[in-house]
Design goal:
Strand content: 25-35%
Number of strands: 15
Distance between the termini: 73 Å
Number of domains: 2
Shape: elongated
Oligomer: single chain
Number of helices: 8
Radius of gyration: 21 Å
Helix content: 25-40%
Order of helices and strands: EHEHHHEEEEEEHEHEEEEEHEH
């Protein structure tokens, strides 16, 4: 057998997956695939816990890189391995915790409510006593995690702001200019707003006392267009700063060109 060729014991059988996570894999630029080994791990976990996972949960964890992707598209948070999954009963909800924030501040859990694509709940620093809705569907949670990094946070042209709370009018302005993406709730802000342009995106962690803005783009021209459009939304232009060399250079030029904010 040639060096590097898979042995029968190590070879992974890959098959096409279904489409509940197709939007996420479209962002990733790859086709979803099932690993027979990963599917066996899922079935073993189901047998051990005495439950059958929802279709969107089975689909995701049957992907050979499911846990790796949850770790990659996060703020160094810690996904729980399939063989370590445990059930929690809370207020008539059967929850399946699957990810822990990098400093243990919060935990995300799937609500096994019998639906094909169940909601995700989050516990923020309550040691499991209080859970709140984070996203309407598990597939939306995964999509939002990947979207944040691919569309905004990992872009080479990136700027940020700590601004006043996002106003209703500001949110309407952004949704009129850009495509509004899925919202999530409870961490790191009260609401996470996402807006997508052709080559840029805006992520806002909105809380009662402030809004953290992140505006990312593939290249300088796209970032300039995004900043010009958003500059006067809740006067965010006065709070922006570059968190990349490219972002700071774009801001330096725009500060000279933009009219002073009232």
């Amino acid at each position: 057998m040639a060096l590097g060729e898979d042995t029968p014991a190590s070879k992974t059988e890959i098959q096409p997956m279904t489409s509940l996570h197709s939007a996420t894999f479209c962002l990733l630029g790859s086709a979803p695939k099932t690993s027979s080994a990963a599917l066996a791990d899922v079935e073993h976990a189901e047998s051990r816990l005495g439950v059958r996972f929802a279709p969107s949960v089975r689909e995701w964890y049957s992907n050979e890189k499911a846990v790796e992707l949850l770790a990659r598209y996060s703020n160094q948070d810690h996904p729980i391995a399939v063989d370590k999954l445990r059930l929690i009963d809370w207020n008539a909800h059967r929850l399946l915790p699957f990810k822990i924030e990098n400093q243990g501040v919060c935990t995300w859990a799937i609500d096994l409510d019998g639906s094909d694509d169940p909601p995700v709940y989050i516990d923020v620093d309550s040691d499991g006593r209080q859970w709140h809705l984070h996203s309407r569907m598990f597939s939306e949670h995964v999509y939002a995690c990947v979207w944040d990094y691919i569309v905004v946070l990992d872009q080479p042209a990136l700027v940020q702001a700590q601004n006043s709370p996002l106003s209703d009018g500001g949110a309407r302005q952004l949704s009129a200019m850009l495509a509004e993406e899925t919202k999530t709730y409870g961490w790191p802000g009260s609401v996470q707003h996402r807006f997508a342009g052709r080559d840029h995106g805006i992520l806002i962690w909105a809380s009662n006392d402030q809004a953290d803005w992140f505006i990312g783009a593939r290249e300088v021209g796209s970032l300039e267009s995004a900043l010009k459009a958003a500059w006067n939304v809740d006067k965010v232009g006065s709070s922006l700063y570059g968190c990349s060399d490219t972002g700071e250079a774009v801001l330096a030029r725009l500060r000279e060109d933009m009219m002073p904010l009232p």
